Amino acid sequence: MNAEVLTIKGEKFAIIPLAVYEKLIEMIEDAQDVADAKAIEERIARGEGEYMPASVVNAILDGESPVKVYREYRKKTQAELAAEAGLSVDMIKKIESGKSDGSLKSLKAIAKALKVDLEDII
What we know:
Elements: E1 4-8, E2 11-15, H1 18-45, H2 54-61, H3 66-73, H4 78-85, H5 89-97, H6 104-114, H7 118-121
Antiparallel strand pairs: 1-2
Helix pairs in contact: 4-5, 4-6
């Protein structure tokens, strides 16, 4: 395929059909997806991550509290999580119900207790 080349203010531009441009964008996005998947696989192989069941991901996407979803996935009670994170059960309940966002310090402690990244629960 030949592209028409235009020079505007000394800079060259290629003009290609829109369908070709859209296909190129799709190919770039696919390549990025493959690179991202490989990076995730490498993290998991190094023990820096884990696969989550679709039920966990879907529950979070459906709007459930990530703290509650991960806590239940880890088979912990609110009391167990509170003790491991150094927080009160009431604070865990408030965070899970959305009545409190929790402080950064609290959320870091919860993430550590649940063995997830902070970004996974905020």
